[in-house]
Amino acid sequence: MSTDSRQTSTGPRQMKLGAFLMATGHHVAAWRHPDVPANAGLDFKHYKHVAQVAEAAKFDTLFIADSVAAATGDAASRMARSDHFEPLTLVSALSAVTERIGLIVTATTSYNEPFHIARKFASLDHLSGGRAGWNLVTSDAAAEALNFGRDEHIDHAERYRRAREFHQVVTGLWDSWDDDAFVRDKASGAYYRPDGLHVLDHQGEHFKVKGPLNVARSPQGQPVVVQAGSSEAGRTLAAQTAEVVFTAQPSLAAAQAFYQDLKSRAVGFGRDPESLKIMPGMFVVVGDSEAQARDKFEAFQALVEPRVGVALLGRMLGNFDLSGYPLDEPLPALPLTQSGQQSRQALLSQLAQDENLTLAQLGRKIAGGRGHFSVVGTASQIADHWQAWFEQGAADGFNVLVPHLPGGLEDVAHKVIPELQRRGLFRRDYTGSTLREHLGLQRPANRFSAQREHRVTHTDEEGLKV
Amino acid sequence: MSTDSRQTSTGPRQMKLGAFLMATGHHVAAWRHPDVPANAGLDFKHYKHVAQVAEAAKFDTLFIADSVAAATGDAASRMARSDHFEPLTLVSALSAVTERIGLIVTATTSYNEPFHIARKFASLDHLSGGRAGWNLVTSDAAAEALNFGRDEHIDHAERYRRAREFHQVVTGLWDSWDDDAFVRDKASGAYYRPDGLHVLDHQGEHFKVKGPLNVARSPQGQPVVVQAGSSEAGRTLAAQTAEVVFTAQPSLAAAQAFYQDLKSRAVGFGRDPESLKIMPGMFVVVGDSEAQARDKFEAFQALVEPRVGVALLGRMLGNFDLSGYPLDEPLPALPLTQSGQQSRQALLSQLAQDENLTLAQLGRKIAGGRGHFSVVGTASQIADHWQAWFEQGAADGFNVLVPHLPGGLEDVAHKVIPELQRRGLFRRDYTGSTLREHLGLQRPANRFSAQREHRVTHTDEEGLKV
Predict the structure, then answer these.
(1) Region Disordered: start and end of each range (chains A, B) (predicted)?
(2) Is B202's Cβ below 8 Å from some Cβ in A?
(3) Are A31 and B186 a contacting pair at CB < 8 A?
(4) Residue B301, Cβ density class (10 Å: 0-12 exposed, 13-18 middle, ≥19 buried)
(5) Which of A414, B61, B388, B443 is the most buried (most CB within 10 A)?
(6) For residue A106, which residues of chain B lie inside 8 Å, CB to CB?
(7) Alpha helices in A11-140 (DSSP H)
(8) Does residue A217 sit in the same domain as residue A342?
(9) Taking all residues of chain B, what is their mean pLDDT, rounded to a whole number?
């Protein structure tokens, strides 16, 4: 198991794995479980341990979600949701206690300024030696809007136009400097080459940003851009701009269709399909036997209060307050959401109908996987599913969701990962040092340097020496 | 020297010390010096070393300045100014490799959202176990405005009104939760006490922010609030809201007047003068003899190009472009700046007049200390000055500015600090674990919890049991 079979970039295709970290785990009742530190959300030692477990298992990356509002109300007071580290500060600290693993962090385009986001992620990329990734999201919750001077969240179409422009500004700022602009020549006194500086001077519908960024171009050239939108607008934006897509898919067939659709769209935008990695979420509960895995899962399920499960369901459906509806009746008909959860809403409504579930039953059903494909079983059973998805055109890898932390991730690290390694489906060691290298993503050329080279070439063709 | 004479909170008054960190040091030509790593601004190992040197010397805090714009232009291309870590990400990483030292970071109120700032500093306070400080500034440079959708920086009065309200919102959000709101009771399923939650619901001239914050109240209750404004509006704001003031004072007499003025103003606002610590900057070059210190200093001075010194001068005077003025003529008459540098402008104009300096000479003169009081000499001579200021009503402590890093700080740590300790003027070890404890600042009560207790008391007086 410890023999070194280093993968090179020309070796067989292997899956990419992200460790999706919610403080106490992905199961809504995880915090109540005796094995789980209930205060994990604000315990740096906990996160340090979890990050080091993931790194020892050679995960490509950590993945940390975010919201810019606390959850309040009766059900929220019974969930571990309102007392977490802000993720950029958290992963900056984690960068100092890890060496190789990627650090993907969520930051919203709806209530931020592109200069700050460009700068913080470039800084994180420098701090970590090239391990930063930005999960670009839009904000769909009224509670978030209310913290930033608005009465309502921004409507779907507008939010995506803003996100598209936000991405243009951020990536433009990341190219403010040539990779070799900072010469720092002590003898001559030249600190940077003036012709290595590029002023963005962006003026658009939502933003006016001059630049340049006050951070040198970062080790990865640009931090990796990640997205998770599955709506029409979300897919279009991802196909244009994302390098990694995180998605919730209920079945192999649905995942195959999504994979095919997104890769085709990317090609339609002139992109190499390999430049976009699709990583569906996979919720897993690992046991030494299937029965043991089921018992583990049931121990979490037994801790779900109906009102908490239903509150989580309301959020999954698009920030609906379902607290007024009877628990033992079917899911009521709901208006099509204006939020970012349209695809999740369709998926869950279908599930409720197919299995004839009451509201409480549906809430309990999604308490662990939250709409992601779930496998409760042995390492071998889990690897079978992942292998099928990976080899049958449904995924380039997975975001791994575990019911509880750190135990659930330790189970994956110590049982599932070795099984994948035996099958040749996952690396035994890192071969690169940056997140891009782990994921097999090219380091982007600087758009301005490329232009300059292009201009020079063009001039050369006219027979001039420049 | 290593005998333990632990200071208790009831021991003799001792000075507070901050290590003011610019990447390569405070001297504008430091990066050209052979002892200095020219790429320090983006070298985490460098900052880690510097932070650990300061912590081993028992400094109260690190102090990191900021600007939200790159410096561009001919002179800027010859200064180490445009390629630094973003400071909040930097100190978050430093929090993971230090244990006791405070972490004061600058963040502007002019181009940020209070929710983000409240959240990030609360998060840093949790990450670091209570060591966070926020240096609240306003932004006076047009280059910064241009990165945030504006053509001009916000005018002085407006900027301070905004800063005042920004402070109200941030500190209000820091009190979103009672210290004991998160009960996390696994048996009952109660994660937080609903009556421990306080919704700010702020609506003001500049901001509308509902809250609550999605971070529990932090170890210090509130991160320490630091300011550096010396204008009339700056002093008023500091007297109302600051817990630490960083200031540039040219002489003992001026520092005494400033100290007296600010403490009186604080008392005028109903505050205990001890709740506001005044820490002037002290630029020091340490030698084993005075002659050696002078030689050291001259080695830096010799590396200053006239155009670079004059560019720095322009910035000190309030973002003036002086590149068109003759180098060998006196400082031209300049319009009173609208920026935050009025007091610095008056100070430097006076200096130029008193010493009859040309523009180039004045630029060179401020290349190290940048208007701060400077001592070039032995540890004993430096300690004499600090002791005089400390004992004669000019300072509660100092922000220490060194020409170069890490060498300049190592000199202070290994030579000046032991001298201060011998004189009983500085701690030999930390006695507390939070920045507030180091500085002798009270942990603030939660305004809402206090109200609630007040209400209960009031009701009791009416003979009711609640």
Answers:
(1) 446-466
(2) no
(3) yes
(4) middle
(5) B61
(6) none
(7) 44-56, 87-95, 114-127
(8) no
(9) 92
Contact map slice: A 297-356 vs B, CB within 8 A: 303, 305, 308
Predicted confidence at residue A96, as pLDDT, reads 98
**Of the given ranges (A6-10, B318-322, B410-414), which has the lowest mean pLDDT?**
A6-10
Q: Which of A74, A86, A115 sits opposite B215 (nearest CB)?
A: A86
Please tell me whether residues B320 and B274 are part of one structural domain: no
On whether both A185 and A286 belong to a single domain, the answer is yes
User: Number of structural domains, chain A?
Assistant: 2
B179-226 pLDDT, tens digit per residue, is: 999 999 999 999 999 999 999 999 999 999 999 999 999 999 999 999
- Give how far A280 is from chain B: nearest CA, Å: 27
Domain boundary among A335, A366, A397: A366
The minimum CA-CA distance between B423 and chain A, rounded to whole Å, is 37
Single-letter code of the amino acid located at A166: F
User: Residue A17: in which H helix or E strand, if any?
Assistant: strand A16-20
Domain identity same for B111 and B60:
yes
For residue A418, whether the previous peptide bond is cis, meaning omega lies within 30 degrees of 0, is no
Under 8 Å between Cβ of B368 and B26: yes
Is B216 within the bounds of a domain?
yes
A226 in B contact zone (CB under 8 Å): no
CB contact at 8 A, A405 and A21:
yes
> Cα–Cα–Cα angle for B114, B116, B119, nearest 5°?
105
B209 touches chain A (CB under 8 A): yes
The secondary structure of A346-358 as a DSSP string is: HHHHHHHHHHT-B
B65 CB-near residues (< 8 Å, 6+ apart) = B20, B22, B87, B106, B135
Are A120 and A77 contacting, i.e. CB atoms less than 8 angstroms apart?
A: no
A72 touches chain B (CB under 8 A): yes
What is the Cβ-side half-sphere exposure of residue B450, based on CA atoms within 13 angstroms? 6
How far CA B382 is from CA of B41, B291, B374, in Å, comes to: 28, 14, 9
User: Among A95, A191, A216, whose Cβ lies nearest the Cβ of B78?
Assistant: A191
User: Quick check: B59 and B279 in contact, CB under 8 A?
Assistant: no
pLDDT below 50 — which residues of chain A? 1-9, 454-466
Strand partners, A185: A190
Q: Does B374 lie in the same domain as B327?
A: no
| Residues 6+ away with beta carbon under 8 Å from B463 | none
- Chain centroid to CA B105: how far? 7
A28, A58: one domain: yes
Burial (0-12, 13-18, 19+ Cβ within 10 Å), B208? middle
A293 and A346 both lie in a single domain: no
pLDDT band at B451 (very low <50, low <70, confident <90, very high): low
Decide if A5 is inside a domain: no
Residue A367 contacts residue A309 (beta carbons within 8 Å): yes
Q: At what angle do helices B232-241 and B156-174 cross, to 10 degrees?
A: 10
Residue B125 to chain A, least CA–CA distance (Å):
10
- Point out which residues pair with B283 in neighbouring strands: B374, B401
Residue A6 lies inside a defined structural domain of this protein: no
Give me the DSSP letters along B324-375: TS-TTSBPPP-PPPSSTTHHHHHHHHHHHHHHT-BHHHHHHHTTTTTTSEEE
pLDDT at B338 exceeding the cut of 80: no
My answer on whether A242 and A387 are in the same domain is yes
Strand partners, A245: A227, A278
Beta bridge partners of B136: B107
Average pLDDT over residues B319-336: 86
Tell me, what's the ipTM? 0.94
pTM of the model: 0.94
The answer to whether residue B466 sits within a structural domain is no
Say whether A210 and B177 touch across the interface (CB within 8 A).
no
